[in-house]
Amino acid sequence: MQLTNRSKQVSNKEMTLAEKMYLPEIVKGLAITMSHFFKKKPTIQYPEVKRYLGPVFRGHHVLKRDEQGRERCTACGLCAVACPAEAISMVAAERTKGEESLYREEKYAAVYEINMLRCIFCGLCEEACPKQAIYLRHDRFLPVFTERDDIVYGKDKLVEKMDDRYVRNNPSVQATPTEPSLSRSVG
User: Measured between alpha carbons, how far is residue 153 from residues 27, 107, 129 in Å?
Assistant: First the structure.
């Protein structure tokens, strides 16, 4: 009775002197090592050349504005509820007369804070937002923290500037030697 069809016949032949000394395997290993000396280096010159991070990279958070420059966030709290790390907190306020040019809806986020030490960059806040108000940029890293006060991002660091609008499909991103094609489809 045979239990599997993947069984192999094992031979117990005597090894040659070269095989006993592992010489063929050492030569094969050295050949692989030598072949790497002549390949193109994957290193890029970082400050001058920025590596393409890809369309699925999640980096710096941004609170979007609409075309008229009004904040999209309505302080519904869905992003804070969706956040598994509980990094987002907000305080809602009512829009007063004369603030129609600042806020889109009747209710807005007077205080919107993200604790960057808690954030795990999962993107669930981005998916939960019904107004498409929060995005995680795919083209910008989060800066290094030097002070403990820099860890909590408020609206001053999150709301996008009108002269630096974030667009998801950024045509100005250039390919680097490690990413020769930007036209790959995301699977």
Answer: 56, 21, 18
